[in-house]
Amino acid sequence: MATFKDHFSGHAALYRDARPLPPADWFDWLAGQAPDTALAWDAGCGNGQASQGLAAHFERVVATDPSTTQIEQAGAHPAIEYRVEPAEHSSLAAGSVSLVSVSQALHWFDLAAFHAEVRRVARPGALLAICGYGNCSVDRAVDAVEWQLYAETLGGDWPPERALVDEGYRGLPFPFEPVATPSFAMQAHWNLAQFLAYLRSWSATQRHLERVGVDPVEAAAPALAQAWGESDRVRTVRWPFFTRVSRL
Predict the structure, then answer these.
(1) Alpha-carbon distance 202 to 65, whole Å?
(2) Which of the following CATH numbers is that of domain 9-247: 3.40.50.1820, 3.40.50.150, 3.40.630.30, 1.10.10.10?
(3) pTM
(4) pLDDT tens across 63-97, in order?
(5) 120, 141, 242, 246: which could form a disulfide with 176 (CB 3.0–4.6 Å)?
(6) Cα–Cα distance between 173 and 127 in angstroms, integer?
């Protein structure tokens, strides 16, 4: 099994507070497609953002992540049981899970081992649902500054797995029969401070800060502020939201 690559524990609280949430109607749709709503597994749950969305629909959610720090930052919910363990080797019982969900984490997994684990824990008719989101967009002016930060300033600080996200996981194997899935819109309504916090939550931002000793978001903040307008102005931030779903 591949070694666990931990890119977020060092700023787990920032990651929890600054990251956008998957669309609520994505979870609505998954609950309607699953054979029942008894048990969902959120694999690679991080701080539990998606776990909370699943808990609105499923009686039980087991949320797993190999990072103790991430799990410690996760929000409590009576339907959610957090476990510190890798997606490739869970403690779930065989044939017990109605939905296996992975949100913005598949690119970190040992896929052959994870796919074997999915087959082990899934009950007949269970869903495997993968989702992720790419780089954000606000408008032409903000996007130009953000892209310079994302691609130029931080280009060498992104882990190689980031390229898999940018291509919408199209290069990753998915050895299951796909289920036709509607499109979902992912967006947040943020002021400038919230947008800057999101940029600071990037693993590449934190790696750049550690490597160079300069906060790249602070350096880009004046140009971003000029493009944004009034700092308390709430603007719509959008992300391309991609999915892969299969019935086992």
Answers:
(1) 18
(2) 3.40.50.150
(3) 0.90
(4) 999 999 999 999 999 999 999 999 999 999 999 99
(5) 246
(6) 17
